[in-house]
Amino acid sequence: MKKLEMKFTNEDGKIVTYSLDKPVEPVNVASVHAAMDEIIAQNAFTSTGGDLVEKKSARLVERIVEDIELG
Fold it and tell me: Looking at the domain assignment, is residue 27 inside a domain?
C-alpha cells in the first residue's frame, strides 16, 4: 500500500510528518503544494513543537510485506 508523506517544519524547527493512505496517482505536484500550503494557512494540525510554519518535503512511500513460512 502506498502513502503520501508530507513533511513540515514546526516553530521549534523540528520536522513533523503527516501521511495519507491511498493517494491519487499519478501524484499532481501542484495539488500537493496547494494542500500543504492550505494545511499551514488553516493551522489544520498541531504538533508538540508549535504550529507548522514551512513545507519541508513530500514523498510517496510504498511498504511491501512478504510473509516467511516457518514450516
Answer: yes
Mean pLDDT of the chain: 95
Contacts of residue 27, defined as CB under 8 A and 6 or more positions apart, other chains included, come to 4, 60
Q: Tell me if 7 is assigned to some domain.
A: yes
Is residue 70 domain-resident? no
**pTM, rounded to two decimals:** 0.85
Query: Which amino acid is residue 69, in one-letter code?
Result: E
Tens of pLDDT, residues 1-29: 899 999 999 999 999 999 999 999 999 99
**Sign of the CA dihedral with 49 first, then 57, 27, and 17 last:** negative
DSSP SS3 for 21: strand
